[in-house]
Each structure stands twice: as C-alpha cells, then as structure tokens.
Design goal:
- This protein is α/β, with parallel strands linked by helices.
- It has a single domain, classed as P-loop containing nucleotide triphosphate hydrolases (Rossmann fold, 3-Layer(aba) Sandwich), CATH 3.40.50.
- The protein is 30% helix and 23% strand.
- It contains six helices and seven strands, in the order E-H-E-H-E-E-H-H-E-H-E-E-H.
C-alpha cells in the first residue's frame, strides 16, 4: 500500500481463482458507503463481473443473478444500499453515461459499480474507488492482479488493506 495526502493510494491484491475474486469484491463492499462510485477497468475476461458478484452478495443480494450488463447497459440489484451495475463498453459518447440515470441512483444513496469505468471517469471519477483487474496470463503465472486505488491518504484503502491481509489476498511482490 502506498500514498500520501494529495496523492493516490494504491493496494495490490492477488487472486488465483473466481472464488478469491468474489471474496475481494466482498471486501471492497465493506468499505463502500451510500452514493459511492466504483470504477472497474481491465480487459475482457479480467474478472470485473466476478468481482461485482462478490460485492452484490456481500451487500445482501443474490450473486448468482449478477451478469455483465453489456447489452442492457445497467442493472439494479436490491441490496443494502442498492447497487447499479453499469457496463460502459458499448457507449460511444460521454453524454450516454448521463442518460443512464446514475445521478438519481447516487442521489438516492445507491452505489454505482461501473465496468469499463474509464469511460465514466470524467463525469464520476472524483472520489471514486478505482479497481484495475489484470487477466490471468497478462502477468507471470496465472494469478490475477487487482489494483485498488483512491485519492489521498484513503481510509477506505487502509481498511481494505487490513481485511485483505487477514484473508491472505495482498500481493507478495508489491505495487503493479
């Protein structure tokens, strides 16, 4: 974990399988608050939807119901707080993010989990928790590297780091 006031704080986690990626999603859920935004990035098959399954399950939803919203663009899960799961992969213009109605979700205390989140970052990136997932094979070995970052000296990253260390999910070789 690294960071200083005014800088980005990062935590590098490691997952060898879908169950561990879902566990990391559950750990992230524990540090989110109503109206938070989670921006997910990574290539196809990197585990963005799998991580979202763990997050939705930890917030009281049925993780088996979680599917990538690539064609529907947004799905809302009845969790506590509600989760709007968005996929920006097919969006061509930044204005299309506004058309999804995420501001209403956030104003009502819901959490936005946005796959291909870099597309929404110019609108929703301030204060967002960012998660980059590497697909197995992008790195040496088959482990998936998950880098979680936040602005400043983040208490969310500190709390996540403690929980991830206790679960044995912190990468042994440091930042990516």
């Amino acid at each position: 974990m690294s960071g200083a006031a005014g800088a980005e704080t990062r935590l590098v986690l490691e997952s060898a399988d879908a169950a561990r990626t879902r566990r990391i999603g559950a750990l992230i859920a524990a540090v989110l608050a109503p109206s938070d935004v989670l921006l997910l990035s990574g290539g196809l098959g990197a585990g963005k939807t799998t991580l979202t399954k763990g997050l939705v399950g930890a917030l009281g939803g049925d993780e088996r119901a979680v599917r990538s919203p690539t064609f529907t663009l947004m799905v809302t899960y009845e969790t506590s707080p509600p989760v709007a799961h968005v996929d920006c992969w097919r969006l061509e213009q930044l204005a299309e993010v506004l058309d999804l109605g995420l501001s209403e979700v956030l104003d009502d205390g819901g959490i936005a989990v946005i796959e291909w989140g870099e597309a929404a970052a110019p609108l929703l990136g301030a204060g967002a928790l960012r998660v980059h997932l590497s697909a197995p094979g992008e790195l040496a070995g088959e482990r998936r590297r998950i880098v979680v970052s936040d602005e400043g000296a983040s208490p969310r990253i500190a709390a996540l780091g403690e929980a991830a260390a206790a679960a044995g999910l912190v990468a042994a070789d440091g930042p990516a």
